[in-house]
Write a structure and sequence with these properties.
Pfam families: Glyoxalase. This protein is α+β, with helices and mostly antiparallel strands. Helix content is 23%, strand content 33%.
């Protein structure tokens, strides 16, 4: 039985999104910052927060010189890893979360929101079963990985975004199938994009976004963070993502940022939300992680460490299937698993 803890603070972002739901409609969208810092004229020591000094006091020369050399070495390592991260072939692969009744959830996703069951995997030695659902094959689409086990949804996790061509029609279908509608179809506050919010049988919220045909209907994963600028910096440097859009909503006391590996109309992106004055959230255990593909899990782990993340599983092959992975936490404790691109494709054969 799921236990959903309501958000009691009035400063928590309300369910109806304001703007920034669609990258293409956000008038504050920033241009790509993929190589922004590489093009700057500022010295690398300035970029990484190091203070260069041409003065060495008598008697302290050896210590200061050694310190400056260490700082320069660290800056060079950061620069090298940042450059590699930006060139690495990365794509968001899966979002993983727990459900209480696998067959019931599969039925809702396939009949109400148009997903396809791609595969199921039973792992009896670990006492759980996985199901993979999405709008296209895993080698080219972002998909959902459901795990059947006990779970507890808390306030930290936000919602998923799904692009549909007709929000009202989708909502009517969900109602007919017994689904729960949290917000009826209508224009987003402060904009013209038609949205609605619905809830699946396990209590996970989905924002329906009305737009034309798109190659990636599963387009958003929203997570709440305690320091938005710090999170953006981490995802840009350690994960190689781009800041696509940032929107402040003072009337409702929250700020959002869209980050990812490409525009939201063609890719799934992360929507990071900062609610004014809230720096920590109870995450529960329902939402598990996002999986991202990489060409090198070992260098990925290096980058995560040097740019302030925490590696929770050192890079290497998984027992039994030999797929190389590494796992880490962002500054807010949200988990990401990086998967070797070649090994991932072998799993799908």
């Amino acid at each position: 039985m799921a236990r959903i803890i309501p958000m009691v603070s009035s400063s928590i972002r309300p369910s109806p999104s304001l703007t920034c739901s669609l990258f293409m409609f956000c008038n504050t969208c920033a241009p790509s910052r993929r190589f922004a810092y590489l093009a700057t004229a500022a010295p690398q020591s300035h970029f990484f927060g190091l203070k260069a000094s041409s003065k060495i006091r008598r008697g302290e020369g050896r210590t200061i010189a050694t310190g400056n050399m260490a700082q320069a070495s660290t800056a060079a390592t950061q620069e090298s890893l940042f450059d590699w991260v930006k060139k690495d072939k990365r794509r968001m692969l899966h979002v993983v979360y727990r459900v209480g009744d696998l067959d019931r959830t599969i039925k809702f996703y396939t009949e109400c929101i148009g997903m396809k069951l791609l595969r199921k995997r039973d792992i009896p030695e670990e006492r759980y079963t996985n199901a993979f659902l999405g709008y296209g094959p895993e080698d080219s689409h972002f998909v959902i990985e459901l795990t059947y086990t006990n779970y507890d949804i808390r306030a930290g996790f936000g919602h998923f975004g799904i692009a549909v061509e007709d929000v009202a029609k989708t909502v009517e279908l969900i109602k007919a199938k017994g689904g729960k509608v949290n917000r009826e179809p209508g224009p987003v506050k402060g904009g013209s994009t038609v949205i609605a919010f619905v809830e699946d049988p396990d209590g996970y919220k989905f924002e329906l976004l009305e737009r034309g045909a798109t190659p990636e209907p599963l387009c958003q994963v929203m997570l709440r963070v305690g320091d938005l600028d710090h999170s953006i910096s981490f995802y840009e440097k350690a994960f190689g993502m781009d800041l696509l859009c940032k929107q402040d909503n003072p009337e409702y006391k929250y700020t959002t940022a869209m980050i990812g590996y490409g525009s939201e109309d063609k890719n799934c992106v992360l929507e990071l939300t900062y609610n004014y004055g809230i720096t920590e959230y109870d995450k529960g255990n329902a939402y598990a992680q996002i999986s991202i593909g990489t060409n090198d899990v070992y260098r990925t782990a290096e980058a995560v460490k040097i740019f302030g993340g925490k590696v929770t599983r050192e890079p290497g092959p998984l027992p039994g299937i030999n797929t190389k992975i590494t796992a880490c936490l962002d500054p807010d404790g949200w988990k990401t698993v990086f998967v070797d691109n070649i090994d991932f494709l072998k799993e799908l054969e």
